[in-house]
Amino acid sequence: MKPAAFDYVRAESVAHAVDTLAGAGGDGKIIAGGQSLMPMMNFRLVKPSVLVDINAIAGLDRVERDDSRLRIGALVRHFMTARDPIIARHAPVVSEAMKHVAHLTVRNRGTFCGSVCHADPAAEMPMMTVLLDGRIHAVSSRGTRTIPVLDFFAGSLVTTLEPDELVAAIDLATIPEGMGYGFHEFARRHGDYALAAAAALMRREDGRVKDIRIAVMGVGEMPSRIAAAEDQLEGTELTDKAVGRAVAALRAAISPGSDLNASADYRRHLAGALAGRAIRDAWSRAKEAVPA
Amino acid sequence: MSQVDASVELRPKLVGARVKRTEDPRLLSGNGRYVDDMTPKGTLHVALRRSDQPHAMIRAIDLGDVFDVPGVVAVFDATDLEGDLTPAIPTSKMKNYYATPIWPLARGKVRYVGEPVVAVVAESRYAAEDALEHITIDYEPLPFAIRQVDAVAPDAPLLHEEAGTNVIISREFQRGEVDEVFAQAPVTVRARFRMTRKTAVAMETRSYLAEWDRRKRALTLHSSTNIPGIIRDVLSGCLDLPGNRMRVVAPDVGGSFGGKGSLYHEELLVCVLARRLDRPVKFVSDRLEDLTATSQAFDELMDAELAVDEEGRLLGLRADVIGDIGAYSIYPWTGALEPVQVVSFLPGPYRMAAYHGRIRGVLTPKPPTGPYRGVGRPASTFAMERLIDMAARKLGLDPAEMRRRNLVNAEEFPYRTGSGIIWDRSAFQECLQAACDCADYPALLRERDEARNQGRWVGIGFASYAELTGIGSRIAVAPGMPINTGIETAKITIDATGAVTADFGISSHGQGLETTLAQVIADELGCRMEDIEVRHGDSALVPMGTGTYASRSAVLAGGAATKSSHVVKAKVLKAAAHLMKVPVEDLEASQGIVRSRSSNRSLNFKEIAHAVYAQMGRIPHDQREDLVAMESYDPYFGTACSSTHLAMVEIDPETYGVTVKRFVVAEDCGRIINPMIVDGQVQGAVAQGIGAALLEEVVHDDDGQCVTASLADYLVPVASVIPTIGIVHVEAELPGTIGGFRGMGEGGTIGAPAAIANAVSDALSPLGIEIDTLPVTPDRIFRLVEAARAANPTERTTA
């Protein structure tokens, strides 16, 4: 479990980093926290010719809010995301999800953007990016582009990021005042990759569900929103029956795989159960909109 | 000796005190010294190309341009090493047994995924691993049977043709007319239990460093083993080196849990290569290798059936067990160690007349099974304790009461079980009672029932068991094994400075034996604990020592230390008597000071040692003796250790996640040397048992590949899954061992899986579910619940 030989460049700036990447001819890798990359290199599943270390680049470790968006820089570690007061206030569902992320040593190094780039289908941050209409800010020596999340994930551990691109930041929608949220995850041990997780957002208007969003992870190639389940609830009263219909629709809409830890049938069952809980939590946290 | 013992009751005792571990300052401050901390000048590093085939002929090995990789020194396969050693043979006197030879590298064919085939030796491990990518092995795949039920079939493909069968171990135990008992029994319960394959996962992976001393033509192996003496003895034969030129040293060792308690291919390999290349050679297993090529455990299918009468009294037990022992019989224990103990311990701590247990150990293309904390008993206790609960449920009897009626009572000891094990006096009944008292069992039942009324899935489970510990020379740890594991030696020396050095054949690898043995010696020799240096884990220390395993070291090494201490103490007092000119009977020793009772005179050990060794004429020349003794201790039969575990679990009725809410252990380990260390051993072993019950499973797929080859897939217990564990020490009448010690390092792993299986079954009892496979994972519970609901759609359930 020793990596193959590689060159190492400590980038001084984003420009330096992307120029180095460009020079690697598609064979370079960005390293920030290294919590997914290093194990893959040690297993020799990835053999980059050069590692471009961005840890010394100033200014990438910030969480900022701009109107209705939160911007999370490339060096924002998991522990920073979990504790950040701006995130806690404007996207509390992210704070809630972060409680399930890994263990202390991983949280101290791993980054939000790195997790999204790794695109593990059972990781929380990719799912949050889907749930909150994230946009990925990619930089290369060719210029910059903003990739909507729906165009970013292309499969399990696969994204549309080009080999010469660096993700400098990801921005997420904030959650409006009064919107309720719920997040439930189940893993074999706390901090492990989830067997499944579900998140829900909604507002209450005239005692009915409004602007509902339901997302799941661990039950497909990538995290996704489940429109069929959302449709069951939008505009309805949140009765047990309605939740049951949404859960049934969600279970019908997903096609999880079987692996060592969970069969497809169990995962389908589990995702439904977790979604039911997330929906109820979101409802109980949602505040009835007060007419202006 | 009797003179020495006269003052026993007057001394302040260290035995029984919560003394902090003397090992910890170095281990916890990063000053431990493990094999991988040693890299002598010129060390070469080994990386292994391991088989990716479960069963295949090696047609050809193409090294390609491997020598173009900078730093590569040499490459070896089995054919290159033929003349360098003879194989290790795990012999046994068992009938119908075939001993599979153990070589450093696969010869001719491979028999499991992970078996070493080619060794690359290079200036660094990086270079060695780079080189592996250049090697191509041409295999001719052979048919194989990966599951034990298939491998036992008469027409199954043979793994070792020379054996003529895959079933290389078969034994039966019988007492009474079991079939008649079953034919007439009012109540019977049966199931096919499965204890899946596990592996030990020590924090330090297996590590070996061999150094050839050209000048002395001597070899030293530094090994992360817990059996250095056994390894020295076998290597001496394999490498044709006498014991005074073949030394095995286990420095600080980061846990074993059984996984480092056997001979490994790589130990043979580094020794052969160091001698051949005349340079130090090191191999450090990485985690992938640890999970795929360290000895594994359990993997039994147990068809077991219990007969009881209407009052719940046990009438008879019969069991047919197939143990999947993997591809080789391990040295020195053989593949019989684990499965034979399952059937010999299956009758448990219970009174029962009739028993028939049959075991077959079958070869499959998987890593060999070997010792694992608890050996056999975690599986046997799981099956038996499940049967007890199933019978209790059928009878409508409380499971505690069911056990109370059947556990061997105080007046029945010594009790001989159906398999021939003899239980000496131990607190069987008292532990059950103590566990119930500690947990407030009636309150716990009320709590469970209230939770059930709210629709929660809560259950309580017991496990009672007994085990043999500190086994002497009368009983082989593994059947028919040619090694005497029943003796340990202690050599105690007071040197010219008055310092005490105690040398042992045991090999502490986390148990805190440096502390506990020093406690015993301080009491028995009358010296200060801080003056004692306990040395262990080095084959050069005593003529023969087998190591630390099988809950033996406190009993055997503690006994040997006591005997040697008494001899040395007698010499100290005799010398002091000359020096003080008083009768020896007038003297007593405590805390390093010898005092005369009749006068106020005293001398400390340093003064006495100085007089004995350095000062001419102080002691009459024909009376002078070195302050040294080397005594050994053989408890002959050994002693029982017993316990009851009680677990309360809650299952989430939607996710099927299991949470252990309460856990209580009541155990009888005789006289306790250090309660803090005993508590730590219980807690660690229970955690390991919870892992076995809920998380851990080595999985080989139908292609023979290990699919749990990282710690993301082989799930060990972490702090968040372990509850606070209540521990009650029950001390029944002390056993006949020196000091009254019983072994206790393994028990937690024996009781916890069964207790949790029973608690989960209790929680699921409204659905009629009985757990028969461990670990009981959320996915397994899901399938059981779905099946139960499909079978009985009207059953009232909550989820």
SSE order and pairing:
The complex is a heterodimer of chains A (292) and B (799).
Chain A lengths: L6 E4 L3 H10 L4 E4 L5 H6 L7 E4 L9 E4 L2 E5 L4 H6 L1 H6 L1 H7 L5 H6 L2 H7 L5 H8 L3 E6 L2 E6 L4 E3 L2 E2 L6 E8 L6 E7 L9 E10 L2 E10 L6 E2 L1 H7 L6 H14 L10 H22 L7
Parallel strand pairs in A: 1-3, 2-3
Antiparallel strand pairs in A: 4-5, 5-10, 6-7, 6-10, 8-9, 11-12, 12-13, 13-14
Helix pairs in contact in A: 7-8, 9-10, 10-11
Chain B lengths: L1 H4 L18 H5 L15 E7 L5 E7 L9 E5 L1 H4 L27 E2 L5 E7 L2 H8 L3 E6 L6 H4 L15 E9 L2 H7 L2 E13 L7 E7 L4 E6 L4 H12 L6 E4 L15 H13 L3 E4 L2 H7 L2 E13 L5 E13 L10 H9 L8 E10 L13 H19 L3 H8 L8 E2 L5 E2 L4 H12 L1 H13 L3 E13 L18 E7 L5 E5 L8 H13 L6 E4 L17 H28 L6 E4 L2 E4 L5 E3 H9 L14 E6 L5 E13 L6 E11 L6 H20 L30 E5 L17 H17 L9 E2 L3 H14 L8
Parallel strand pairs in B: 1-12, 8-29, 10-11, 14-15, 20-21, 27-28
Antiparallel strand pairs in B: 1-5, 2-4, 2-6, 3-5, 7-15, 8-13, 9-10, 9-12, 13-14, 16-17, 18-26, 19-20, 19-25, 22-23, 23-24, 26-27
Helix pairs in contact in B: 10-11, 11-19, 13-14, 15-16, 16-17, 18-19
Your description of this structure?
The complex is a heterodimer of chains A (292) and B (799). With 292 residues, chain A is of the alpha+beta class. Chain A has 3 domains: 7-53, 2-Layer Sandwich (Uridine Diphospho-n-acetylenolpyruvylglucosamine Reductase, domain 2); 63-173, Uridine Diphospho-n-acetylenolpyruvylglucosamine Reductase, domain 3; 180-285, Enolase-like, domain 1 (2-Layer Sandwich). Chain A is built from 11 helices and 14 strands. In chain A, strands 4-5-10-6-7 form a 5-stranded antiparallel β-sheet. The mean pLDDT of chain A is 96. Chain B is of the alpha+beta class and 799 residues long. Chain B folds into 3 domains: 2-32 and 487-633, Aldehyde Oxidoreductase, domain 4 (2-Layer Sandwich); 35-142 and 205-253 and 260-293, Aldehyde Oxidoreductase, domain 3, CATH 3.90.1170; 296-474 and 636-791, Aldehyde Oxidoreductase, domain 4 (2-Layer Sandwich). Chain B has 20 helices and 29 strands. In chain B, the strands form 7 sheets. Chain B has a 7-stranded mixed β-sheet, sandwiched between helices. Chain B has a 6-stranded mixed β-sheet with strand order 7-15-14-13-8-29. In chain B, strand 23 and strand 24 (602-604) form a beta hairpin. In chain B, helix 13 packs across helix 14 and helix 18 packs across helix 19. Mean pLDDT of chain B is 95; it is low at 1-9. Classes of the chains: A alpha+beta (292), B alpha+beta (799). Chains A and B meet through helix 11 of A and helix 4 and helix 20 of B.
